[in-house]
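Training component of the fellowship. As part of building independent skills, the fellow (R.M.) carried out the full modelling exercise for a liganded target. The chosen ligand was iron/sulfur cluster. The inputs are recorded below so that the supervisory panel can assess the work.
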Amino acid sequence: MHYHQYIPVDIVNGPGTRCTLFVSGCEHQCRGCYNKATWPLKSGHLFTEVIKDQIIRDLLDTRIPRRGLSLSGGDPLHPANLDSVKKLLQEVVLSAPDKDIWLWTGYTLEQLSSEQQEVVALIDVLIDGKFIQAEADPNLVWRGSANQCVHFLSERAQHRQENRG
Ligand code: SF4
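Fellow's submitted model of the complex:
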């Protein structure tokens, strides 16, 4: 897998202070995409063990407490990214189980293959669907267009969401 950017301290992509990884590779070609440079699978930098270990270290860093990890792109659920993303998430779940995982994808929840579902089973919140310019709305939270949906999948994500009222 390749990635475009890793932000070790991020307060924009998801709730709280987070680590955010923008992976390379997207086949959706949404009109008005904010991140076209990430479309080619081999663009950006090679995702190595070194950067994976860095993410785990940052999530565990108590000097700047992170609430969790955000994965965006590009598309973390692009079929070519699934093995690497799954390995990363398995390690996060094992090493930092209290950190929540948010993932943005252009596929809808209903479209996911069994391999993609295996990755989604490791996350807390999925924001799904292509960006549709005609439905774009800057007032939406965590999503760019109204067709996209924020799915609170894990029990703790649902619990947190319910307690927000
Ligand atoms: S899914 Fe996201 S990265 Fe991919 S084309 Fe659409 S807006 Fe761009």
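The panel noted the following from the submitted structure. DSSP finds four helices and seven strands in the chain. The chain has one domain: 2-164.
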